[in-house]
Amino acid sequence: MRPVAARPLSPPPRGLVLASPSTPWRTVGRMVGLVILLYLIATPVTFIFVGLLDGNFDLQPGPANPWMSLTGALCSLPLVALVLYLRRPRLTHVILAEAANGGQHVHQLPGETVLQTPWPTLLRHHLIRRSPPLDLPRPGPLAALFLGAVGVMVFVLVPLGAVQAVGAQVIVFLLLLIPAWLIGFSIPVFIWWAVSSEVLKLQTDRRQGEAMLIAGMLSTFPALVINSLLFPMGLAAVGITGLAMTEALTVTVSAPVGEEICKFLAVLSLRGMIDSSRRGLQVGFTVGLGFAMLENLQYILLSLVAEPTVAAFSYGFTSVIRGIGSIPGHAVWTGLGGYALGCMQAKHAHHAEKAASSSATWGLFNAQTGQALATATSAWVVQREAWTRRVASSFGPAPPRVVVPALLVGIAGHALWNGSTVVLDAWLADASAVTQFVAFVGWMVFLVVLVLQAGRRLFAAALMDAESLRGTF
Fold first, then answer.
1. Does a structural domain hold residue 10?
2. Crossing angle for the helix pair 166-200 and 308-321, nearest 10 degrees?
3. Confidence of residue 160 (pLDDT cuts 50, 70, 90)
């Protein structure tokens, strides 16, 4: 029998279930690669604005330097194109052959392929956007990798400082530098991302999760222009030109205000995903993690650019403090705005949910055994009650449910973190090194505890909102 003509594409049937191999570490690799690309893009993009606003670097408006802007644009374009290529939508071609009276035994498939069936079948085929569930490694292995890498780096660099052969120092240091840098700036972000995903238990596909993280990374671009160009130019315009004062005001005023506004605008750009306070918290928290990831890349890199013994202490201290404090701090401060936006969206979301772009459901399976796996949203089901009890047992005032107060609280928290360290440095300028170290570590511990407790209270509010909607809390 001659093959029949190929049938046209049709919408996928409801209830179609598709499988995707579980590759949790692939998400980690993709995001690390993207953040490095965006970091490389940030500098030429900044020079575009410098060339337009302050071509001679004197912090006074003008003159414009079009060649600087053009060079920045030309240097950034190939990297931007690469990012867009990596983020292109992926499609899956699904072909269904169903037994039916009056069907065909032979079907022409796209290309030169022919399908022959032993019984009469009707053939349908569909193009479906590939959107498997967000698949992240478990927090335990991630934490073990992070702590192990930091420990190895510290204990190798300390004795390396006593090595007299400069060549041996350079070789060993370079061999350790790249993996230590990659692990130090990225893994803490994935730990908090995995924990927040497990606590919130929301159905999220990989493309949505990556979009949240990337939006946070992109929000660093306008924040960088504000902190490094616009705010110093504004200070110079009112007569504040001292380097120390400019740096202090940038850290305590420009960074909290500019960065939190930029991050919230990134959350706002994803408002189409937000239909509840819990989803708003997820989006805001993940956007904050994306911002912290790109920012952390710079801090960890700078901590390693020193003599080995100094780098050992600087790298270990910076990695741990930022991993348990600054990174969740950014996430919590932005999560406040996301949570409030979710509360607002939920009030207007009594209409039916928007229809999904595809009625296909994706699941994960083990590529080696072929067994179906629990998705990221259904993993740790046994521990769900324990997580809810632990988070909901937190104390403190309820987070604001209105956007502007929530944004102001986030700015205040960020300003407290940055400003208090600046004040502490100035206050202890004449104290002994031991006093400075003890005071600084003690204050950082207090700030970390404050951030973590604020995060617990925020997640408790979102979980209680979800439970109250189901009438079971």
1. no
2. 0
3. low
Q: Are residues 165 and 90 in the same domain?
A: no
pLDDT at residue 53 above 70? yes
Same domain, 71 and 154: no
Q: Are residues 277 and 212 in the same domain?
A: yes
Instruction: Tell me what the mean pLDDT of segment 358-378 comes to.
Output: 60
Domain that holds residue 237: 139-470
Domain-ending residue, one of 129, 147, 162: 129
Task: Measure the CA angle with vertex 182, ends 176 and 206; round to 5°.
Answer: 150
Domain end call among 129, 163, 182: 129
Q: In the chain, what is the greatest distance between 2 CA atoms, to the nearest angstrom?
A: 94
Residue 392: pLDDT above 90? Answer: no
Own/partner contacts of 202-206, CB < 8 Å, gap of 24 or more, are: 202/278, 202/279, 202/282, 202/377, 203/133, 203/375, 203/377, 204/133, 204/134, 204/282, 204/376, 204/377, 205/131, 205/132, 205/133, 205/134, 205/362, 206/27, 206/131, 206/132, 206/133, 206/134, 206/135
- Is the domain of 32 the same as that of 160? no
Measure the CA angle with vertex 232, ends 227 and 235; round to 5°: 130
pLDDT > 70: what percent of the chain?
A: 83
pTM over 0.70, yes/no:
yes
Mean pLDDT of 243-270: 94
Query: pLDDT confidence of 381, banded at 50, 70, 90?
Result: very low
Sequence-separated (6 or more) residues with CB below 8 Å from residue 348: none
Length of the chain: 473
For the record, the structure tokens of 181 come out as 């840098």
Answer whether residue 345 shows pLDDT above 60: yes
Predicted pLDDT of residue 283: 96
Strands 372-373 and 361-365: antiparallel
In a domain, 271, yes or no: yes
3 lies in some domain: no
